[in-house]
Each structure stands twice: as structure tokens, then as C-alpha cells.
Amino acid sequence: MSDELFDKDYIVTVLNSPKIREQIIGLMSGMDKQQVNVSQDKYKTVFIPLPPLAEQKRIVAKIEELMKYCDKL
User: Fold this and answer.
1) Distant-in-sequence, close-in-space partners of 1: CB < 8 Å, separation ≥ 6
2) What is the DSSP string of 51-68?
């Protein structure tokens, strides 16, 4: 994908969100906790909402703004 289509900080935020992490955990395979993996084909099935780039940037900015308040708590 091109940087013109997505904001890297937005993608990181989405991948760390509870719903997406739940999807990824559901795709994990392997018995030992240290040997768990997710194949590339399985990763391709994860749904990542991708609004227009400007909206992605607004979402990231809002999260950063709100995190400042969380840090003060």
C-alpha cells in the first residue's frame, strides 16, 4: 500500500484495538505460547476499517489529544 492511502499511526492504532486484536488472536495457531504464529494468508483475512486518509489523520490526532488527558490521570 502507498503512504497516500493510509496513515501508519492509524494502522498501528487499529491493529492494537481490542476488536482487531481479538481477530488476530483467533487466527493464531501453535501449541506453545512461544511458538504461536499467524500465517500471512490468515493475516490477509483481518478486516481493517480504512476511512479516507484525512479521516485517518483526524482519528490519530484525536486519540493523541485524548491520551494526554489519560496520562494526567
Assistant:
1) none
2) --HHHHHHHHHHHHHHHH
Over residues 20-44, the pLDDT tens digits come to 999 988 888 876 666 778 888 888 8
What is the SS3 assignment for 29? strand
Amino acid (1-letter code) at residue 53 = L
In the chain, the amino acid numbered 69 is Y
Question: Which residue from 70, 54, 64 is spatially nearest to 12, judged by alpha carbons?
Answer: 64
Q: Are 28 and 36 in contact (CB under 8 A)?
A: yes
In the chain, the amino acid numbered 60 is V
Gap between the terminal Cα atoms of the chain:
37
What is this structure's pTM? 0.74
- DSSP 8-state secondary structure symbol assigned to residue 44: T
Contact 28, 19 (CB under 8 A): no
Residue ranges covered by each domain of the chain: 8-72
